[in-house]
Amino acid sequence: MSSNNIDYFFNAKNIAVIGASRNPKKFGHIIFRNLMEKAYPVNPNAQEILGKKCYQSVKDIKGPVNLAVIAVPAPAVADSVRECREKGVKAALIITAGFAEIGHREEEEKIKQAAGDMRLIGPNVIGIYDSYSGIDTVFNLRHRQQRPRPGKIAFLSQSGAFGAAIMDHAAYEHIGLSKFVSLGNMADVNEIDMLEYLAEDKSTNVITMYVEGSKNYRNLYYCLKRVTKSKPVIVVKAGKAKETKKAVASHTASLAGEAGIFSGMLKQSGALEADADEMFNIAKAFSQPLPHGNRVQIVTDGGGFGILAADALINNEMRLSRLSSRTTKEIKKYVPSYASVSNPLDLTGDATTMRYKDVMPFVFSDKEVDAVLVILLMQISSLDTKIVDVIASMKRFKKPLVVCMTGGEYTNIHRRMLEEKDIPTYSSPEGAAKALKALFEYEKIKRRTT
Amino acid sequence: MSSNNIDYFFNAKNIAVIGASRNPKKFGHIIFRNLMEKAYPVNPNAQEILGKKCYQSVKDIKGPVNLAVIAVPAPAVADSVRECREKGVKAALIITAGFAEIGHREEEEKIKQAAGDMRLIGPNVIGIYDSYSGIDTVFNLRHRQQRPRPGKIAFLSQSGAFGAAIMDHAAYEHIGLSKFVSLGNMADVNEIDMLEYLAEDKSTNVITMYVEGSKNYRNLYYCLKRVTKSKPVIVVKAGKAKETKKAVASHTASLAGEAGIFSGMLKQSGALEADADEMFNIAKAFSQPLPHGNRVQIVTDGGGFGILAADALINNEMRLSRLSSRTTKEIKKYVPSYASVSNPLDLTGDATTMRYKDVMPFVFSDKEVDAVLVILLMQISSLDTKIVDVIASMKRFKKPLVVCMTGGEYTNIHRRMLEEKDIPTYSSPEGAAKALKALFEYEKIKRRTT
After folding, report:
1. Backbone φ/ψ region at B414: left (φ over 0), alpha (ψ -120 to 50), beta
2. Average pLDDT, chain B
3. Does the model's pTM come out above 0.90?
């Protein structure tokens, strides 16, 4: 099997949807509609679907077919796979469930036999979403599951439902993704293949993954060790407790392994472990340059949030920077006498956009500062929308910057504007601190010689 | 000073806004507009404001004035306070900053002298929001800071900006509040007075507070010990790290105390400590009955999320219940053969609303189950909006229930519908598990004899 052929899953020009349906509630219909322009419908019981000529078999299609998406009932999957191979299809994605995950290992083996050297993703997957090529086999309706904007974060998931929910959440939070892949039972393509593919993928800068278990922990370890040298990998591990390992076996037919050992393996390999709700929050921080140390300066318009952020940084093994006396002196020219020019640097509740603009260059230029955590409480009326450009212009200092903004509608509008400019934002000080910690950790990992 | 008079802050019928302004950008204007119906504007430089006759001094107002909101410049505050006392005002809320928090302790002392037995909140506050009486002295514009719907959670904050941001966030998340109070410098009314007031407040079932420090830790301890016997108190402590105590002193003139000692004191007193982003998530769980044990059953339509929830429960010292064989047998009648009837109970990715409806009564009736964590992934098209009523109808079993829903717009619409029916929802399994843990912890606290 050629590892290069994995690219057909994401960049196929001609796709057959086997099991395409006229019934708008069926997966085969939704997938076909998602892929319309590039797709041939295959279904022996239909003449045409959504105005496109329908084929009895993939073999009846005249031109080349690079990718097949298979959504037929389980007993018909192996035959569909065989026909695909005979047609010369390079890659097949099997949506259908009901194989190894419910004990039907022999049926899954039959699929593998039928595939030959054709690459397979699945069975038991929701498939693939590529925000750049537009390939989208996710069968959830778009009003129920939003699709994320293009970005630099790739996301591998052994669970389809987890993948769908988290992608939906990412879209809502305006987080950009490059590629999403649900791996399911991994009859052929597994997490290791995908990690190696994504390590080379130009549209991906950060890799996130949800893992229940691996069929080859040793290979996963060496793979992570290689991949993390060039790109950060953030892992959510499910089935960590003794009590939850059994559930993993019945979910994706994986072996959960010992959680303690898994965590240790991840750490040694250079991957970063995260909770489910932290995964993308950490990943998006990697839009920033890596820090050269762990001294963080807080700039805030709310005293209480400044203190909470300082607590959170220290709780996450970061340090509070001490502004040089020169920086302090400069900043004092621009702030009222009651502002606290320290760490946190408290610009106070009447801080204007201009006050941030005046002060921040001194903070970023200070050699005592490795990274900056900016707090923007948009509830006060002295901050206006220009703050977005002011914050984004700090990129010129090439130091990591994260923004903490807590609030409702108005705040979230401004969070989205910052996210679009690749400034990572967080709704809590703890979230911002964890993101900076991850940047610092990864900088150390990259510096390691072994 | 009579503790009863605190009620005037929340239920005053006649309010003077001293420093009311015609300039729509000034705090004195926004506060007056918030309170319009009940308020007299006081400002020696205006004839009328927003069509209402303006008074030179509070003493010129003919009828009784129960509450004064003071938003004049710092040097004029003490005189305003004196006039209020002379008028017979019962309570004054001082918005103006620039007192003890910037070292002006003598000026703050003058205010206290001028107040006599009139109750004071502040100075240096954004004030009060009462969702039932409509009293709202928060000077942030409503499009920048939304106001939460009425509910049973009270919120005390030593930081105004923290209070504003978190209230805004609560409104956005559809969390209901009874009362919000920003305490500022606590020249008179402090956290202990407010805890005692809220313990008796009929519209409040749960008390949340943001604390930087106390002027009397001993009294706070005994107060919490009393209050937590009848209502849960959830505390966010800022300035926990050695490095952040100095910042607290310059923020609200409090002494941060030793964080370790503070945490220990909270635990002994029966209060629950939380991170800033967890505070309301934990508080809203108290809409549920308290559990009689820590055995939790997970019901899910996503295998991966079920496993993550199980991990999160165990990580939070809860246990996974084991359904009785009778319950298991009943449930199997209603679910497909490939569904895993265990813990997690995985209704699988094609679970319908009806499947939840059929199965959940057996789960809730099982004596082995103390609490239920339901996962609803709304991305799949077999779940419809009726699920909201199905979930809410489980209240009849009088067992605690929390719902975990991760996603975007469509999911959040359904989260809000559940929140309005007092079913607490969480965007992550970890959040749901922490909420159940808090219920279980508080049940143990209530059972304590000392």
Report:
1. alpha
2. 93
3. yes
